[in-house]
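Record passed on here:
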Amino acid sequence: MCGFNPKEINDWIILQDKPGYRFSSLFRNYPLINYDVMPNPPISLKALEAFMGHSIKETSVPFDIDRPLTKEELAETIKYCRHDVEETIEVWIRSIEEFNTTMFFVNHFHLGSNCIGKTKAQLAATILGGNRKGKTFDDEFEFPILDCVRLNKYKFVANWYKNPINHDYKKTQENVMVAGVPHTFAWGGGHGAIRKHHDSGIFMVVDVTAYYPSLQKQFKIGYRVMDNPENFEFIHDSNIEFKRKGDKKARQPFKIMDNAISGQMKEPGSSLYDPMSNNTICINGQLLLLDLIEHLEAANCCRLIQNNTDGIIIKPNNYEQDFDTIDDVVWEWEQRTGMRMDFDIFMGHIFQKDVNNYFLIDRETGAVKAKGAYVKKLSDLDYDLPIVNRAIVEYFTNDVPPEETVGACTSLRDFQKVVKVSSKYLYALYAPTIVEERIRDEKGRSKKVIRFRGGEVQKDKTFRVFASKDHRKGGIYKVSGKVVRGRKKNPEKFANTPQHCFIINSNVSTMPIPDELDRQYYIDLAWKRLEDYGVKR
């Protein structure tokens, strides 16, 4: 439309790594509505295609070919490009809730179609009237400790944050024992958990409702960079209201937006940038939970299982006798802080790897509360080693050993491990021969070295990898081409891939499972991860 050669712009973006809009100001004459379907954090389109089970084969036609394409090459190029466009539409459809959230707020606040392409963070800044003009932010570490914080035994944790010598985001308080559990307190939050912990009984999950946004509203934190703080309060109040009503569908857009706001205060590029206010929320948030733990510990009514960001998990010493005491301590804390707590009771088991990886199961109701990559519920756009996740969850939920879950699976896609060659590496290498040799170093001393020889250089960048029973087959590695001490650096094995594998980059949605698949590899991996939760094989 502007009269440019698209190839020149393509090279500007791809080869020179420059933003497309900087190519020419003439682009402004043709405003386009752009909505980015890429997830956050980013995942490449090819990886998303792999998760969905679709073909991830690259075109055999080079993009830098210096002659007109043949009829066959042109047909393949069109097929390849059409495939990626159709896959992008698939990604959009399968993540439609994110788009609906954007459209909800664009329409509700009458923002105009040019805002459809904004990220949730940018949208939040627009809605709240983010305004940092004429403001300086040299008070980053002048955050207050809120008057409602009541610490005695653990007051030293709060004092650490106020000490100027510790005003460095790299510094942390490590191995602080709180209620018998080792904790780490950092500038981004505090947490602690019993590692590799497996226990049964009655557990209480005590979470603060929309913690950071609630703190922000209760104490008007960050309002100094908002022209429209009433919009923030509307979003937050609606989030809480629909949560209380149990209306998940109506709540969804408000929940997403409510959680996107406080993080913007630490982003220098955001119009809501206000690092002191962000510190105020993060530091007081963890100190208030520490306050709650201190009071529960003093009441001698429960055992702390974990403490993380917006809530705690505890095990009452005697549920019937101690519930009222716990309830009274929490109620007093709520009245003093203005926060509100949600209680969930689980009568069953907890399996806990660490603070960010746990699984709670109520044996009577079947209710589950889980967190962490090993036990999360996978989606079509996040489908990596799903059989291992399923085996772990089945063990926790129904006492089914991994051997049964893995042995009964009939979907090849469920065994896939997706890996990608990043821009830091040149290419992938499949099945090289690896040998150990002895050499003499520069001082004449004998030492062992690992050598890689041969292997198949891969043209693709993304791979769907499966474990193979054929031990004549090797693994898959990434090659950087870097030179260390005069020698090329050895290839690196892709993380969490088997020593012996086969690769299928075509569509596996309906493909039968080949006899070559090594199910024992996935069984062993499931048991290895279960051991991380304190389960013995």
User: Anything to note?
Assistant: The chain has a mean pLDDT of 93. The radius of gyration is 27 Å. The CA atoms of residues 60 and 76 lie 8 Å apart. Residues 6-114 form one domain.
